[in-house]
Amino acid sequence: MDFWRSKTDKSPRVIVDLGANVGYTSAVFLSLFPRAFVLAVEPDPDNVEICKRTLAPYGDRVKIIEGAVWHSCGQLALSRGIFGDGRAWATQVRTASVGEAASVTAWDMPSLLKMCPHDTIDILKIDIEGSEKELFSQNTAEWLPRARNICIETHGAECDQAVAAALAPFRYRVDQSGEYALYLDITE
Prior knowledge:
By secondary structure, the protein is of the alpha/beta class. The protein has a single domain, classed as Rossmann fold, CATH 3.40.50. Helices cover about 25% and strands about 30% of the residues. The protein has a 7-stranded mixed beta sheet, with helices on one face. Strands 4-7-5-6 form a 4-stranded mixed beta sheet. Strand 1 (about 15-20), helix 2 (about 25-30) and strand 2 (about 35-40) form a beta-alpha-beta unit. About 40% of the residues are buried.
């Protein structure tokens, strides 16, 4: 994640880590940017427990949310071992089937932004195992103009299309870092 030093010209104040897993990326951001606040969002309760231990040294510079980002607030189901390669990091959230328990709190971006100390996201990191389609397909007008830089791993053509359509009205620079697409200096 050190590429952020060369990609952005400001020291970020707010970083939102969607799909924080066990908190390693959040820890790198917090170490690189000692004045930044990180909101780390992770739906898997086992990962959240590890994330809390990983990020404990950063104190009040981080807030950990056990839940998932979605286009609206509500409840979702957690699916393990079904998405992608089926390994531990491929946990996914989805709308619950009829009769299935919905055990994950879904947060929309405006609700998550209210938990941040500033109303602009300087770095929005997204690795949410296919849910980016849901996030970018609906209700983006209120939050997307408040994101300055996005680092996203998309999962398939439908996700790519949803992200491209949502970002179409904006100006930005595009770069790549491994599996992550970087949308930099986003402006309307």
